[in-house]
Amino acid sequence: MTRNSAVLPLSLLAALTLGVSACGAAEPASTGSGGSGDSAKKITFIQGVAGDNFYISMQCSAEAAAKAAGASLDTQGPQKFDPTLQTPILTSAIAAGPDAILIAPTDVTAMQAPLDQAAAAGIKIVLVDTTLSDPSKAVSQISSDNVGGGKAAFDAIKELAPGGGKVLVIDNQPGISTSDARTKGFDDAVKSDPSYTNLGVQYAQNDVAKAAQLVTSALQKDPDIVGVFATNLFGAEGAATGVRQADKQGAVKIVGFDAGPDQVKALQDGTIQALIAQQPGTIGKDGVEQALAALDGGATEKKIQTGFTIITADNLNSAESQAALYKSSC
Ligand code: T6T
User: Fold this and answer.
1) Does residue 154 share a domain with residue 270?
2) Atom of ligand 1 nearest to the CA of 130
3) Has residue 4 been placed in a domain?
4) What's the gap between Cα 246 and its chain centre?
5) Which of 74, 138, 148, 161 is deepest in the core (most CB within 10 A)?
6) Region 128-152: what's the mean pLDDT?
7) Is residue 308 within 6 Å of ligand 1 at its C-beta?
8) Residue 35's pLDDT band (cuts 50, 70, 90)
9) How many domains are there within the chain?
10) pLDDT tens digits for 261-289?
11) Cα-atom radius of gyration of the chain, to the nearest Å?
12) Dmax of the chain from CA atoms?
């Protein structure tokens, strides 16, 4: 099923202007909310990485949905977007015996076996944001239209730099379903327009400083780069820093996935031109509802696709853009 998955028409991109930045990873989170009594359903939410505005926003709505249903929800997350750090968190969550786990798997293959084990233990698994190579054991998977988002990013760069030229992608790491799909959507779109050349994907491992360094080096080698697509919060923050360091704000257009407070600041100061805000709140709410439906023996939706909002400096103050901004806390 697809919900709210319409990409804003490109005509709305006519108002494109600037933006970007990010947020750092935090302590492994473990916060709880809602639900009381022995009969309350227990849900654990395992983020891709703690301290990321996208997952914080998802947590807030998941907590609210759990509370409304009389269930409890506790949230945990690794300090880095890394399956070797997420696996032990999942293992101890399984040992605690929740009724359901909502999780953003940090790798399509590395998280497969531990999640299959959780499902085999009778825990209802809902994949939120990212997915697995084989998601069949999950009761539901909910994510943005990431291929469409990658294409929308290129469409935005085209509007910002209509003359064509070289474009670059700053990504987290390979093996993440969401960003792999974003880079594919972007790359396919670039290939359809011979006036642009995709210099390819560079991986920054969610490290803002590394993303900045990749962008400054790329600009030294190819000073005529016209656009950078950053596939998530941290890549966008780093790309903005790299472009600032090269003193090329505005000359190099940055389009970044996600819309945390730092990205919005960069949009306002003109370093980033467009943000593709996902709907983490919807993903979290739907995730809890799917988990509870599965626990109650009700119907679940195997796949739910959510949409996004393209935010520019010009439309930032609109009600739609304001509603799409990510939270730093609940
Ligand atoms: O872009 C989101 C999320 O969709 C992706 O899977 C990982 O990075 C973010 O959490 C943003 O940092």
Assistant:
1) yes
2) 6
3) no
4) 27
5) 138
6) 98
7) no
8) low
9) 2
10) 999 999 999 999 999 999 999 999 999 99
11) 19
12) 63
